[in-house]
Amino acid sequence: MAYVGTQLGVSVLVLFCTMAPSPGQAYIYAHYSNMTSMLFEDLPALFGPPLPKDGLMGVLVEARPQNACMPIDPPPVSPTPSDPNSTTKYIVLIRRYDCNFDIKVLHAQQAGFSAAIVHNMYSNSLLSMGYSNDTIMEEIEIPSVFTSYYASQILRSFIIPEKGAYVILKPEFSFPLSYYLIPFTGVVSMIFIVMVIILIVRCVQHRKRLRKNRLSKEQLKKIPTHKFVKGDNYDVCAICLDEYEEGDKLRVLPCSHAYHCRCVDPWLTQTKKTCPVCKQRVTRPNPEYSESSDSDGESGPHEEEEGATSEADSERTPLLRPSNPASSSPPPTYSSTVTSEAAVATVTTSALHDEYYSPIEDSEEGTDDDSDTTELMGRGAVRV
């Protein structure tokens, strides 16, 4: 996924680098009479090179002939062999009509001008100048713009006659929406993908934790059930608080607590795999934990004798004991096969049910039960 994020970042960077703003229109900055300036709108031509980003400054000269449909006079001063590094640039003002725009600009280029301004006649509307011949268009190497008739009158009256006056042709770059939208969309998409990945990882981790704390359907089927008969030691379901009736199907947990199957099954499969009352696990603990417990038990007989009394009275020891306290053997586990005539679960050996264990075996495992709830709600144990 890191590789994908890197590729997205590179793509966004390429978009930023390759997308350049396109010039929509340009301006003519006319400077004269002690830095007095005027601004005129114009449109760049559809042929020839674009205007430099920093603009093009030069002295304005009117074309002769004005329509530039034939070769025109060169600028008054041009670079000479004695001054080849002269930086003075000249811009020619050309009248519209009589021939195509590309021909007018080509004649200005051949005369030595650095740029051309073509103005409208008796109209202030602007248009984008096109070309009529591909061969001529490919020969044009100077930029050109189209301006209004009003601008030509001002330029002809104030700029051309005055010594020291000059004009600057500067493009105005329009930034299209896609120039900002595409990189922004790429960045937002990359952030969204990262957030989705994090969310999926968190959900998977949460599902694993829930699955670890819940009982599977296969494990649930191994817990014995008992059909209630009057006279049993079970009287009230601690979950729904309803008294058991003849024929109710009960789920008997290894801790000897019984509940309605319809009540305890959702608890075991959707919440926790522990007894709702005494909080003891209904499955054996982790084998690693069992091994560590066994190794602790083999530390010595003296430690076992000293810990016997404290273990019996430990606060983690279940408060509910089997109904036959005199028996020293661990409470038996129950198989899923039940005889309705005797109304008690068939006793089997613990070897047949490795998935379960007695409460005494799990006395060292930490529990978070509420003692008051256990004392008030726990009832009886299974008869043997």
UniProtKB/TrEMBL annotation:
Q: What residue stretches are annotated with the RING-type domain?
A: 237-279
Lineage top rank: taxon: Eukaryota
One GO BP on record is: negative regulation of intracellular signal transduction
* Localization, UniProt: Cell membrane; Endosome membrane; Lysosome membrane
Q: What is the annotated signal peptide range for this record?
A: 1-26
Query: Which keywords fit this entry according to its UniProt record?
Result: Cell membrane, Endosome, Glycoprotein, Lysosome, Membrane, Metal-binding, Signal, Transferase, Transmembrane, Transmembrane helix, Ubl conjugation, Ubl conjugation pathway, Zinc, Zinc-finger
GO CC terms: endosome membrane; lysosomal membrane; plasma membrane
Residue ranges with Acidic residues bias? 291-308, 361-373
Q: What is its EC number?
A: 2.3.2.27
Q: Which CDD domains match?
A: PA_C_RZF_like, RING-H2_RNF13
Q: Low complexity composition bias: which ranges?
A: 334-351
Membrane-crossing segments per the record: 179-204
- Pathway linked to the protein: Protein modification; protein ubiquitination
Reactions catalysed according to its record:
S-ubiquitinyl-[E2 ubiquitin-conjugating enzyme]-L-cysteine + [acceptor protein]-L-lysine = [E2 ubiquitin-conjugating enzyme]-L-cysteine + N(6)-ubiquitinyl-[acceptor protein]-L-lysine
Q: Which GO terms describe its molecular function?
A: ubiquitin protein ligase activity; zinc ion binding
Asked if the record carries the keyword Transferase, the reply is yes
Q: Map out region (Disordered) in residue numbers.
A: 283-384
Pfam families named in the record:
PA, zf-RING_2
Q: Which family does it belong to?
A: Belongs to the Godzilla family.
From the Swiss-Prot or TrEMBL record, give the protein name.
E3 ubiquitin-protein ligase RNF167
- What species does this protein belong to? Sinocyclocheilus grahami
User: The organism's lineage?
Assistant: Eukaryota, Metazoa, Chordata, Craniata, Vertebrata
